[in-house]
Amino acid sequence: xxxxxxxxxxxxxxxxxTLAYTGNKVVCxxxxxxxxxxxxxxxxxxxxxxxEDLIKSGLKNKNLRGSTDIENCIRESDLTFxxxxxxxxxxxxxxxTYIKSASASIGRALRAKEEHEHTIIVKSTxxxxxTEEVVLPTIMKKSGWKREQLGIGMNPEFLREGSAxxxxxxxxxxxMGVSDDMALKxxxxxxxxxxxxKQKCIPRTAEFIKYASNSFxxxxxxxxxxxxxxxxxxxxxxxxxxxxxxxxxxxxPLFLRAGAGFGGSCFPKDVKALAAASKKNxxxxxxxxxxxxxxxxxxxxxxxxxxxxxxxIKGKRVAVLGLAFKPDTDDVxxxxxxxxxxxxxxxxxxxxxHDPKGMANFKKLVDIEMAETAMAAIKDAxxxxxxxxxxxxxxxxxxxxxxxxxxxxxxxxxxGFNQKRMEETGFDYKAIGLG
Length: 435
Hints:
This protein is of the alpha/beta class. The protein has 18 helices and 14 strands.
């Protein structure tokens, strides 16, 4: 199948590279020439395990390429995925600027397409009714085509940054939101090799499944963090509580890890967008509001723990290990490290940061001193704050850390270190959810 993918972010690149790997001819489209040049040279514009190898494979077998010639490439394809960004407005509502622009480009391209049949599948995360009431009307208006000439579908992605390639190649479910037989036929053909459950529904249902899924997981994280905070007060190890909770098949052990809160490009943005959509439709959403409120205050517990142990923060050298919002990604969007670092700096701390992949991106958010290695960041530090549980950090030699530090305070915002070994080595160790 000849496929065009609009957008070369996480979703677009992973979608394009994995579809090319299964034998389709894929062109990834973007207006930013430098990103397309990198793609065509086998360089992934983002860090994602396995993605660059997949891109190189696609280029080598000529199933994958990038282009800025958006309209001509769309005309030459059978199917177009919309994978552009849907950022938040200041009030948390979804910004559909890129969706509208992509839809208009598709419409203009189809106006001159000789074969009057084309399928458009929205993969961007959009609020219910967007595919039916924004994308479709725009394409029809700009193209002049009749409804029966278009296949329109919504196929939400369920990709986790850090394991996006694996998730795309081995999905646990596929949701096919379709408005017509053309889109259904194309999606069935695309995903026929996957044996996972496949749900057929209308586009607005598919759009809502994505939002409801992410909001539920975010709420689960915020709930767990509140329980972990209580564990801190009552002298209880929340890991043992999580083990007991997770043994219940109705709860499951997934997303029961306490920490400094959630970040990234999905959970914060999607919960805010759904909350804003609820407000717009005059539906009260107390759960969504509480989920966001807990997540905003949770990182401050890390600062409070550091302050309790250091006594005075001002003038203290604090090594923050981990700037990306999670391991195996360079994504720093909504990272909880930014909240912690800003609060520590406000209190007068001297911050030295390190992250295996996220330092360049984080530097755009907060201008702090960066160390080339974790041990360089740790050297002469009064306190270590672990904010991202990279394997590089959790496998550090505790004795070496102790020798390099000026102090002995370790605040574990992700429960990445071993408590027993930390305390045996002589650290003043404190973690979220550790009484």
